[in-house]
User: What shape does this take?
Amino acid sequence: MTSKIGSTVLGYPRIGPRRELKRALESYWAGRIGQDQLRETAAELRARTWRELHDAGLGSVPSNTFSYYDQVLDTAVTFGAIPERYRALGLDPLDTYFAMARGVESTPPLEMTKWFDTNYHYLVPEIGPETTFSLADRTPVERFREAERMGITTRPVLVGPLTFLLLSKKTAEAPDSFTPLDRLDDLVRSYAELLSELHHAGVEWVQLDEPAFAADRQSAELEKLRGAYERLGKLSARPKLFVPTYFGDPGESLEVLTSTPIEAVGVDLVAGATTTNVLSGLTGLRNKTLVAGLVDGRNIWRTDLDHALATGATLLGLAGEVAVGTSCSLLHVPYDVEFEQNIDPQVKSWLAFAKQKVEEVVLLDRALHEGREAVREQLDNARAAIEDRRNASRLRDEKVRARTGQLRPEHARRGDRAKRRADQRQALGLPPLPLTTIGSFPQTSDVRKARAQFNNGRIDRPTYESRMVDEIRRVIELQEELGLDVLVHGEPERNDMVQYFSEHMEGFVSTENGWVQSYGSRCVRPPILFGEVSRPDPITVGWAKEAQGMTDKPVKGMLTGPVTILAWSFVRDDQPLAETAEQVALAIRDEVVDLESAGIRVVQVDEPALRELLPLRSELHGQYLEWAVRSFRLATSGVSDSTQIHTHLCYSEFGEVINAIVDLDADVTSLEAARSRMEVLDDLNSVGFANEVGPGVYDIHSPRVPEVGEIEKSLRAALEAVPADRLWVNPDCGLKTRGYEEVRTALANMRTAAVRVRDSLN
Ligand SMILES: CN1c2c(nc(N)[nH]c2=O)NC[C@@H]1CNc1ccc(C(=O)N[C@@H](CCC(=O)N[C@@H](CCC(=O)N[C@@H](CCC(=O)O)C(=O)O)C(=O)O)C(=O)O)cc1
Ligand SMILES: N[C@@H](CCS)C(=O)O
Ligand SMILES: [Zn+2]
Assistant: This one.
């Protein structure tokens, strides 16, 4: 048995190379297959992953990186943190797990939120003084044994105890003074119990992920980190402990971790600012293993191996051992670039997905420890691809550069607010508390099937387009019938709100099979932004005109904003993001202007990812928010005062971006507020927000249809904070994941509630 950790990856995709797990999960939830079949698919996927990673030559293969839904939920279940309302359902363990993830009719799911600054979402554990931690589930031990039976020794991976508690929220019953971290000692006791069982099962290394320490942390939290790992480190019978931080600069936590008895630390050398200077100051590192995260786990570019090797070489003297690893789990990239048949061959030669990244890790580790000569040919081939990308003339478009070069402050500034308001009132003639939706209507399986048939050549473009027009007509008629005021076309033609736009812009390539898990069984195919971005032709104008031609009410044009396009794409890493954002902003600006010219009087530019891209370290916030806000304003400032610009933000707590929301200067901002009970309006008031606002009046993430009374209550609560002439009425996000029946009733209830409140206004 080797005692070194060796080359490794921190985690691997788990949805299946052909989304086998997605299909099995959705079949199980729909009652089409049973638990046995679901478990069989899961076991096959795990076996396949372990075999591939082992055969690729990694020094250490991770296990317990598979999950039926989410790794944070798995950790909660492992340590018994199951809220009583789910236990009380009396379901078997797997269905209890799915009830926490997805809810059942009587009981909503746990809250879901962003995993740091990624587009992956985790379920938020609820921890209170009453939570009983225990080693309730032994899946990590079972998975280790499962791989052992294949002859593969693995390294179980778990979310570390600090990160687990820092990501949890307190239970409703907990006193105000309580924070989940107060329960650290009890939780660490259960981790200790698990470590002991893993040790007795023959586990040599365990990985405990602590990415929470790549964000700002208070000194008390750092002390708790020290205390926890000192305690785990002092256990007499335990596996060796490997604790990576990732997604950014570990700051002081690295010194803390290296002062404890753990055997290995991991640093993200791609997203982290950790320099060799910092590492050289860490005397505690000299008798530990450093897993150097040199291969980017979050982007899809081939690694510049010469550069990575140079960094690796400077690390060699600083730690007891240096092993090459990925910067973070490979969960955030697709499986295999070789599945792609349609990507431009030159661009394809610049790419590395998960499988290729494993090869890079193995190669780098060999080059570092055996010398370059041992792998000269592979290094030469890799260098040729890097140089080809560096020198590619297509990566510069003089027309795009000339345009960005001529930008002046006035390009990001709209007319006077009061005049805009007056002009828009006149142009639109809306009632008080106007009713609208966020854009998408249910994406029925008929719509998705039609798109699949069109993509496979089984139906032609006119047939596909006429089906989309039929769907738009149905959506417009429904909104007319429901009495909404500003209508939408429903977005049926969009596979995804980012991918769709990227497919119509220069500078991007799309993948056929580049699926990345976003949450549970839901996946996205992030486009690859490789070059200079521009918009050769109008993208949405035809659909918007079609819809506007079906009604006298204003139809809202619907676009995705530059920040969100960047956040949900794989972006180029050879220039600052702010520069790329400017190009995307101008492409969207062209579309906004063309919508206006086509007679569209209201245009919404969605920025749900504004908060997501906020850097984990607060010292970087100002710089980010400056370019993020400017790019939105560049995109939306090309129109006249009478054109009403909306924006929509969701999936986040807005606290840290609240000033930025004001600075976006959209005429109307719709926000996900159903779950934060309108508190966001007080926050907006406190920073002088004076434009119109539509705080979501019901939660679209749940199939539950809201009652008139509860919507009315929300609206009256909103009116406490915002005068009626600035308040809009809308759901809190798009309706694409819902069904028509529930949407029809929910929107009808929303209208009844709004009419009641309108009637009581005078
Ligand atoms: C709003 N959200 C989004 C995020 N990121 C994005 N890039 N886009 C988003 O909308 N991040 C934050 C949230 C996260 N949420 C979600 C929500 C929903 C999904 C989702 O539903 N994903 C779908 C795939 C969507 C898609 O690309 N659809 C394609 C069809 C592709 C497909 O699977 N086709 C089928 C055949 C079709 C059929 O017969 O039904 C096939 O190939 O087998 C399309 O519409 O053309 C999902 O199912 O996972 C993701 C993130
Ligand atoms: N317009 C989009 C925004 C989602 S965040 C939709 O309605 O789906
Ligand atoms: Zn939304």
About this structure: Residues 461-482 form the longest helix (22 residues). The first strand starts at residue 61 and ends at 63. The chain has a mean pLDDT of 96. Residues 438-440, 497, 558, 606, 608, 648, 650, 733-734, 736 surround 2-amino-4-mercapto-butyric acid (ligand 2) (CB under 6 Å).
